[in-house]
């Protein structure tokens, strides 16, 4: 596994840069905060992802920010389509954590 | 639970490696094997060039706009061929257009984030300043 990542880093012209997908790979098993194109944000434990950054998340909270306030939806396990993702915050605790 | 997590880990790592090879040009090498005798050896050796050189902007502050109207700025720490970015000390900025129904909250600190390439609309290195129209004087001269 570690050797695999080293190969990926070595294959680049500039090995000092931090590869985005490599960073997400390191987050597997820990909490991740996904900010979507819409006014939604998803926080969950990352179980895995693919090339499109479709993700399987466990113990999920879905935050929807509206003019009235923030709605929270709890889900057990989801497959999140990568096409809606704008930003990924490793270890992020979501809008509540950021606000605190 | 931990077992399923570990298997997911391995799978994703393989997927990642596959994508790297795909962009590194080894994929083309595969085609080459299928059609021996083609004279594209020079093209094969040359690393695939990206449209713009983000290496110049490493450790520089970048301002990013996304599909859907979100905006963020942070220090560029890494990128890949698909324009996925790693930004450090990132702040999400409130949306400029107030008529958006999903008007964003205040500015907030996110720290180290990964930005998805397919969702990026605009990239602007901080410090870029508007210049006066260089064609105005030329038009006046004529």
Explain what you see.
Chain A: Keywords: Acetylation, mRNA processing, mRNA splicing, Nucleus, Ribonucleoprotein, RNA-binding, Spliceosome. The complex is a heterodimer of chains A (100) and B (142). Chain A has 100 residues and is α+β, with helices and mostly antiparallel strands. Chain A has one domain (2-92): SH3 type barrels. In chain A, 22% of the residues lie in helices and 46% in strands. Chain A has three helices and five strands. Chain A has a five-stranded antiparallel beta sheet, with helices on one face. In chain A, a hairpin with a 2-residue loop joins strand 3 and strand 4. Mean pLDDT of chain A is 85; it is low at 1-12. Chain B has 142 residues and is an alpha+beta fold. Chain B has two domains: 2-43; 54-128, SH3 type barrels (Roll), CATH 2.30.30.100. A five-stranded antiparallel beta sheet of chain B has the order 4-3-2-1-5, with no helix packed on it. In chain B, a hairpin with a 5-residue loop joins strand 2 and strand 3 (85-93). Chain B is globular and about 50 Å long. Classes of the chains: A alpha+beta (100), B alpha+beta (142). Chains A and B meet through helix 1, helix 2, strand 2, strand 3 and strand 5 of A and helix 1, strand 2, strand 3 and strand 4 of B. Strand 5 of chain A pairs antiparallel with strand 4 (108-115) of chain B, so a sheet runs across the interface.
């Amino acid at each position: 596994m570690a050797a695999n990542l080293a190969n990926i880093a070595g294959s680049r012209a500039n090995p000092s840069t931090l590869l985005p997908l490599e960073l997400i790979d390191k987050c597997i098993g820990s909490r991740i905060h996904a900010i979507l194109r819409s006014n939604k944000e998803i926080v969950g434990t990352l179980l895995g992802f693919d090339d499109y950054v479709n993700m399987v998340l466990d113990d999920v909270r879905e935050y929807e920010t509206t003019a009235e306030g923030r709605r929270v939806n709890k889900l057990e396990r989801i497959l999140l389509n990568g096409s809606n993702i704008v930003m990924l915050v490793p270890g992020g605790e979501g809008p509540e954590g950021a606000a605190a | 639970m931990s077992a399923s997590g570990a298997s997911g880990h391995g799978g994703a790592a393989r997927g990642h490696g596959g994508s790297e090879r795909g962009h590194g040009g080894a994929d083309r090498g595969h085609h080459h094997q299928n059609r021996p005798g083609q004279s594209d050896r020079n093209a094969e050796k040359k690393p695939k060039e990206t449209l713009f050189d983000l290496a110049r902007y490493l450790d520089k502050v970048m301002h990013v706009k996304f599909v859907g109207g979100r905006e963020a700025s942070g220090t560029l720490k890494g990128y890949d061929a698909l324009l996925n970015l790693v930004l450090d000390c990132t702040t999400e900025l409130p949306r400029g257009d107030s008529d958006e129904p999903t008007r964003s909250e205040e500015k907030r600190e996110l720290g180290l984030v990964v930005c998805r390439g397919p969702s990026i609309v605009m990239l602007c290195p901080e410090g870029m300043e508007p210049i006066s129209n260089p064609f105005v004087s030329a038009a006046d001269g004529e």
